[in-house]
Each structure stands twice: as C-alpha cells, then as structure tokens.
Write a structure and sequence with these properties.
heterotrimer, A mainly alpha (291), B mainly alpha (344), C alpha/beta (239), B: 344 residues, mainly alpha, 15 helices, 2 strands, C: 239 residues, alpha/beta, 6-stranded mixed β-sheet, 9 helices, binds adenosine-5'-triphosphate, binds magnesium ion
C-alpha cells in the first residue's frame, strides 16, 4: 500500500515538472495554431535551450537562471532562421513535405548537437541544487521550485504579450484569419517569423529550467516532444491557459502513475495514453465537415 | 512464360529492366572476386531497404498514409525469423515468410485503431506505436529483453538449412529473389482495381466513398502487403546479421525514418521510385557511417545529421523525388501529358 | 413503390437545426428539383441521404431498403450516385482515371472500366480532356467531372448538388439536355440548383426548403406562385 504522503509528494513534484511541460507544449501550440504546421523538432529546440544554459554555466559560470533570456534569444534567432529557410517554403506544400521538412530539421538539430557536443549525458551542479524545503511530509527541491515560478512568469508574460502588444494582437489576428490579417495591413510573413521564434524560444526556456535539476542529453528532445504533443492535444490550441493547465495535469499524472506502474512500462503507458487521446478526439481538430 | 519475356523485351521499360536485373545478378560475383565486402554489404542493404521502401510506399505513395512506424513490422519479422530458428529449429527459408505474415497480422491489428486517424495524427501515432514495441520487447524476457537474441554458428552441413554464409554475397541473391517476388505481387496489385482504389483514397476519402469505395477496407489491404514485405525485410536482416535486439530493429531513425527517406528520395508517386531512392540513399548513409563515424566515434550522430540534410534538401528542392524530378525534366516518359492525348 | 422515401429526418449541428423534420418521396424515373435560399439545408439533406451524415431522427428508405445510418459506400453500391457542391476531384489522377474508378464499382476489370469511363466522358463532353490532371480542370469542368464520376457508378438515383452553377446559358441548355437523356435512360434525378431557369425547366416536381424545413412541394407552376416560397426568397435576396 502506498502511503498518502507519497501521493502528496508525487502530486507536488508533478506540478513542478508539469510547469516545464507546459512551456514546451505552449511553444508547439503557438506554431501549430498560427501556421498549421506541426513542428516535429520542437523538443530539439528545447534541448538546445538546455545546452545553451549548460555551456554558459560551464564555460562562463553564468547562473542558469540568468541564462533564461540568453537561451530564449539564441533559439529565437534560430527559429526565425528555420522559418525563413525551411518552413516558409513548405507552408502550402502537401502534408508529406511539411512533415518531412520539420523532421529533417529535427534530425539536423538533434544529431548535429550530438556530433558537436558528443553523445554524452551532461549535468549542471548549481550551488543551490541540494537545497530542500520541507513542509510536513512534503519536500521541495529549490531548483524545481524556481523552475515552477519562472515557468509561471513566462506564461504570464506571454499571455500579457498576446493580449496587449501590437505584435501579440497581430499574431492572434493572423492565426484566426490569415487573409483578413493580410488585408488589414499586417505583415503576415514577419508574424510567422516571430511566431516560430517565440514558439521555439519558449520551449527552450523549458530546457533551461530542466537543466538545473535533470541530466541533459542531445537526444532528450524526443521525450519532451511527445509530452508537448500530449499537452497540445489535451489542452487544445490557441489557449495559453489551456496549455499551461494541461502541462501540469500531465506532469501530475505522470508522477503519480510512477508510484503504481513499473518504471520500464511507464513510457508505454504515456505512449498508449497519447494514442488513446488522439483516437478519442479523432477528426475533431483537422477533419473538414463541409461537403 | 517465354512468350511473356519476349514481349517484355520488346518494350523500352522491359529492356531497361532486363539490363538492371542482369547487372544486379553479376555485381555480387564481381564484389566477391575483387573482395569488396563493403560494396557487397551496401548492396544487400540497398536491396533490403528497396523491399521495405516499396512496401512502405504502398501505404504512403498510393494510399496517402504516412507511416513513421515501419520499424514495427521490420522488428516483428526479424524477431519471428530468429525465434523460429533459435527456439524451434525452423529453417529461415520458411521463417522469413512466417515473419512476414506475422508482421502483416500485426499490421492489420494496428490498422483497426490507427486508420481512424487522419493525416498528421496517423503519422504521429505510428511513431508512438514504434516506441511502444521497442519498450515492450526491451522488457520481454522470452525474446531476450534488452540484450536481444543471437543465433549460434552452425556446422558446415547445416549452413544451407540455417542460411548461414560469410559476408553478404549469398544474401544478395536471397534479397534479389525476395525483391523479385515483391515486384511480381505489387505490380499487378497497383495496376488492378485495388491500386486505383488506393489512389482514390489518397486523393480524397469522401470522393472515394461516393464511388463505392470503403476506405478502411482498402487501407487494410494496403497495410497487409506493406507490413508483409517489411517483415520479410526484417527476416533478411536476421539471417544476415544473426543478431536482433530491440534498440536496433525497432529504431525510429535507422529503420522507420530510413525507409521513409529512401521512399521520398526516390519519389512516392513512382512505382520503382523507392528502389531508386534506396540505391541512392543507402550507400551515402553507409559510407558516412562506416568511413567517418566508425573511425571517429566522438562524432557519433554525424551520419544521421547527414540524413537530415538529405531529407531537407529533398523536401525543399525536389519534393516529388528523383523519379518525379526526372519526369519533370523530360528524361522519363510522363505518366500523363496535360492538355493533349497520351500516346498509347 | 417509391424509389426514395425520406421520413421525418432531422439533423442538428450544435444548436442549429440544419434539417428539420423533412419528409418526401420520389418515384422511379422522376426528375425532382430541390431549392431554397443559402443555408436552407439542401446539401445537408443530400449528405443524409447519401450516408455522409447520420440523421438525428427519422428514416430513409431506398429501393425498398432502410438505408438510415448506412455508410456512404454501401449506399453508392445500392445505386445512389452523388456529386459534391464543393467539388472533390481526385486531383493528381487523370480525368479518365477519375471516372474509371467510378466505373470499377460495376466493372471490376480495369480495361473494361476504362472503356466504360470513355463512353461516359463522351456523353458528358469531357472526352477531349481525358488525359489531363483532374486538378487542372476549371470549375465548370470539375462539376462535369463530378457528374461523370457519379454516372460511372451506374446509379438508379442521382443526387446533383449545383452542377449547373458557373455555366453560361448555352452550356446550361446543353447540360439540361444531357440530364434529360440520362433521365430517359432510367435514372431518377434529384437536383439542387440555384439557377431558377434550369430547375424550373427540368423538374417535374419541386421541393422547397427554408431554414431546414420543407415549406412547399409541387409542380414548377405551383411553386412559382406559392406565396410562402416567394416570401422565403424575397425575405432574403433575389430569386
Ligand atoms: N458540418 C457542419 N457543421 C456545422 N454546421 C453546418 C455543417 N454543415 C452545414 N452546416 C450549417 O447548416 C446549415 C445548412 O447548410 P447547407 O449546406 O445544407 O445549406 P444549403 O441549403 O446547401 O446552402 P447553399 O445553397 O449555400 O449550398 C447552414 O447554416 C450551415 O452553416
Ligand atoms: Mg449546398
């Protein structure tokens, strides 16, 4: 029998890690919602964020928290580049070309990073890594707590950005009706650059946060991409709030189920869950009903 | 039969086919004489991926169902052949086909839920299924868990029964035979009513239904043959390498994505495109893997990076693949000529 | 016995009742027009008859069988052919192959089906374009392709959703002549059309829908003078 305190601990740590999942999912949802492009490489931009943080810390001693903007900016720039060089050209292409193009980006980033950084697991040891707070039977690791608040801050900032700034409003306009937005004088092409840049940038912040308390590896993006897909499918598109909550729900589900399911089958359950979700929500998202 | 061959040779394509077939039959002898094991191995892999990419393309090019999960069928075929041989002493001459059939049955079982999904969702789900199979085989003791299964070296007199030969030379003929079998089955299939129905489903499922086509039924037919020959590809792998493990045979990148790239590179709207794609793509990737990455293990991953570059180049520059590109440039007879009547 | 019998069908989309308790029947060999303002529910009714939607209520009988809830391809096999208002060509295939795929339903042999398809294309006037990519046709041609494909399935009942739209007057006359010929060869026709001249000309009987409800049914003369019909149209836009 598993004690209640274990469950409580699992819930709390699920919320904390879930807030990182939220960021990765939000980035994917932004790109998907605005351009109707599924970025298979989303998890790999997140990995880049983690490695930016790792190298900044290792080479220059930059505290991971200070590298949040750095990792955002580096991946933002890379995202804009990807959009201009790759995505832009397949926006109106058949589905196969779109999927294979982002898949190619995935292979280049993931294995380019592996060839460059080596196929090794890396870790950051910050001085506050082992600071643990206890509330009754619940214990909280400081880096995870920080990650939670940074993630919350990023989500709020993103929300405010979308609601109040010109660019944010323009982005939403483009996602609702590309043609109308164009006629209103919005530079759609530029909005797409920004969308892809911000989309991968937000996910990269997730990578930075993860790097403070989990080992990182060039191939880590695969797992987080799966999580991001579940977040998006579960939380729906175009809602920052939806993505945030669904990330946390998934974090909690994962960490609570880990108490009951053997670790080797844990991922099987995650994949099955993913298939189950998209089966239940079958044509709902893309199916055309107009005949 | 002779009549058939005579007629075939009168046709331009038939002549090309005869020449290519002759080269394929002679090449392994040359590799063997000149002692070129790398070339022989590359040729075997080309043939193995030709078999699988063509099978994959029945689903993607003909039916419009993009699978990133063909490693499942490859792995099931490879494991079945291995288990029959290792545990039941069944000759791989039979085991390879049983492996194909088991893979086909797995394909049908997966088709039931997966074919409810459209476009992106189908592709995503096939990735997830591939990972599920890998994880299950890793923790399944009967099939050797994460260590996999290895078949022992057999004494000389059992070599034929267990299909055990040094190098790739003999296996090239095995693969050629199986590719020939596939062509004999696939070509009539795609030229028949079924082939037309699959293309109708690819173009528009609603329109297809209005023409009396049950999309699910025909997708299942495509899945059956697609999984069957991909499983047979797995059997070839087992006899050649005598070792299967879940990380190798269920790998998303080096199996599923390889098959996909070979197919797309060659051209998904062409019957033989996937074969052409395999023969271009596999040697490049093998070269990088064997001559660069094996020598400099520090740069592990570089070979896959190169795949990424190739894949990106195709999807941006020639999304219709090599065959489609040749056709567009007028080097091949077009399938249809817009605006004017086709010469029969 | 009637060929098609629609009994009290209802189809809702969320709060909107797109088809509201519609009943009518058609005898073999009839030509019936189905008219109504935009959004009246005509296409939705077609989708119900041809099996693309399942009615929330009501039943549909075809040729003596209850086909309610049957799949579209089963209904096609039973002998209901349809066209799509928003055309759905098999874009990357040739015009001939588009039609041949329809013909394969009754002629499983590919060569035989292609022969049948050629005959159909000669009838519908697309024969010259048979080797073009279907996607490269213009809209009126695509509409005629829809018709050719449906004909190739050798239907007893043909559901035509705005096949006349976009044609110039002489083309309209030509098409109407063709539809009459098809009808005379024994095919029952139910057609949705906004071009009043065309429906009035070809239909023996007309059914009028508005806001999902059948508001009138009768001969073209009766319909043209029916105050409810006039109101339904004048209440919105031009006739
Ligand atoms: N799949 C759907 N989901 C939601 N609403 C729908 C759907 N299909 C149709 N509708 C709505 O149902 C109503 C009837 O539409 P329908 O297409 O049947 O009209 P119609 O009579 O064919 O019009 P038109 O003359 O413009 O073709 C409309 O209000 C339409 O917006
Ligand atoms: Mg309509």
């Amino acid at each position: 029998m598993i004690g209640l305190d274990y469950v409580a601990n699992a819930v709390v740590s699920g919320i904390l890690i879930g807030s990182v999942y939220s960021l990765v999912g939000m980035g994917l949802a932004l790109i998907w919602g605005i351009m109707d492009v599924i970025n298979f490489a989303q998890g790999d931009y997140m990995m880049l964020g983690a490695f930016v943080t790792y190298w900044a810390f290792t080479l220059a001693g930059v505290d991971p928290l200070l590298s949040v903007p750095l990792s955002f900016l580096v991946t933002f720039a890379l995202g804009v580049l990807t959009q201009r060089v790759v995505i832009e050209r397949v926006l109106d292409a058949p589905m196969v070309s779109q999927i294979t193009a982002t898949f190619a980006v995935l292979l280049m980033i993931r294995y380019g990073a592996e060839a460059a950084f080596g196929p090794y697991t890396k870790r950051i040891y910050v001085t506050y890594a082992d600071v643990i707070y206890r509330f009754g039977t619940i214990s909280l690791q400081l880096p995870r707590l920080i990650a939670f608040f940074v993630s919350l801050g990023v989500a709020v900032a993103f929300y405010v950005f979308l609601k109040t700034t010109y660019t944010g409003v323009a982005l939403r306009a483009v996602s609702q009706n590309r043609m109308a937005a164009y006629l209103m004088g919005i530079n759609v092409r530029k909005m797409y650059w920004i969308a892809f840049g911000i989309g991968v940038g937000i996910s990269a912040v997730g990578g930075t946060l993860v790097a403070t308390f989990l080992p990182i590896h060039p191939e880590m993006g695969g797992f987080y991409a799966l999580i991001a897909f579940i977040v998006v499918v579960f939380g729906g598109f175009g809602s920052v709030f939806g993505a945030y909550i669904s990330g946390i729900i998934i974090g909690v589900t994962e960490s609570v189920s880990a108490l009951f399911i053997s670790p080797s089958l844990k991922d099987v359950v995650a994949f099955l869950l993913f298939i189950a979700i998209i089966l239940v929500k079958p044509t709902g998202l893309f199916g055309t009903e107009q005949r | 039969m002779l009549q058939f061959i005579k007629e075939g040779l009168r046709d331009r394509n038939g002549q090309y086919f005869a020449i290519v077939a002759a080269v394929m039959l002679v090449a392994p002898l040359i590799f063997w004489k000149l002692d070129l094991p790398f070339a022989a191995n590359a040729m075997l892999l080309c043939l193995m991926f030709s078999i699988m990419a063509m099978a994959w393309n029945l689903l993607e090019g003909y039916t419009g169902q993009l699978s990133f999960g063909h490693a499942v069928f490859f792995g099931v075929g490879a494991y079945t052949t291995m288990i029959l041989m290792l545990y039941y002493r069944v000759t791989p001459w039979v085991g390879i086909f049983v492996g194909g059939l088991v893979a086909a049955l797995v394909g049908l079982a997966l088709g039931v839920p997966l074919f409810r999904l459209r476009s992106h969702w189908f592709a995503l789900a096939t990735i997830a299924v591939g990972e599920i199979f890998k994880l299950i085989f890793i923790s399944w003791d009967y099939v050797g868990g994460s260590a996999g299964l290895q078949s022992p070296i057999v004494p000389e007199e059992q070599k034929l029964y267990y299909l055990q030969y040094a190098g790739s030379y003999v296996y090239i003929y095995l693969a050629l035979g199986l590719l020939g079998l596939e062509l004999l089955i696939m070509y009539p299939l795609v030229k028949s009513r079924i082939g037309y129905y699959l293309q109708a489903i690819r173009e528009d499922e609603d329109a297809a239904m209005s023409l009396g086509i049950n999309p699910f039924k025909y997708k299942m037919v495509a899945m059956f043959f697609s999984a069957l020959f991909t499983g047979i590809g797995g059997g070839i792998y087992t006899v050649r390498f005598r070792f299967v493990d879940p990380f190798a045979v269920f790998d998303l990148i080096s199996v599923s994505v390889y098959i996909t790239i070979a197919g797309i590179l060659g051209g998904i709207y062409s019957f033989i495109g996937p074969i052409v794609g395999s023969f271009v793509f596999v040697p490049i990737s093998e070269y990088v893997r064997v001559y660069i990455v094996s020598r400099f293990p520090r740069f592990y991953g570089l070979h896959v990076f190169v795949l990424g570059v190739i894949l990106l180049a195709i999807s941006l520059l020639a999304p219709e693949g090599i065959m489609g590109w040749l056709e567009k440039k007028g080097y091949l007879r077009k399938r249809e000529e817009t605006g004017e009547v086709r010469k029969e | 016995m009637s060929l098609l019998e629609v009994k009290g069908v209802v189809k809702r989309f969320g709060g909107l009742v797109a088809v509201n308790d519609v009943s009518f029947s058609m005898d073999e060999g009839e030509r019936v027009g189905l008219i109504g303002p935009n959004g009246a529910g005509k296409t939705t009714l077609f989708n119900l008859i041809s099996g693309y939607y399942r009615p929330d209520k009501g039943r549909i009988f075809f040729d003596g069988r209850d086909i309610t809830g049957r799949k579209p391809y089963e209904i096609t096999k039973l002998g209901v052919g349809r066209t799509f208002q928003i055309v759905k060509p098999l874009s990357n295939l040739t015009v001939l192959d588009n039609v041949a795929i329809g013909a394969l339903l009754r002629h499983p042999d590919v060569n035989e089906a292609r022969k049948r398809a050629e005959e159909v294309l000669k009838l519908t006037g697309l024969y010259e374009k048979r080797n073009m990519r279907a996607g490269s046709l213009n809209l009126p041609e695509k509409k005629r392709l829809e018709l050719s494909r449906a004909l190739a399935t050798e239907p007893k009942l043909l559901l035509l959703d705005e096949v006349v739209a976009g044609l110039n007057p002489s083309e309209v006359d030509e098409l109407l002549k063709l539809l009459r010929e098809i009808n005379e060869s024994g095919v029952t026709i139910l057609m949705v059309e906004h071009v009043m001249r065309a429906v009035m000309n070809i239909s023996e009987r007309i059914i009028v829908m508005d806001y999902g409800v059948k508001i009138a049914e009768g001969t073209p003369q009766e319909i043209a003078s029916d105050p409810r019909v006039i109101e339904a149209y004048l209440g919105r836009e031009e006739l």
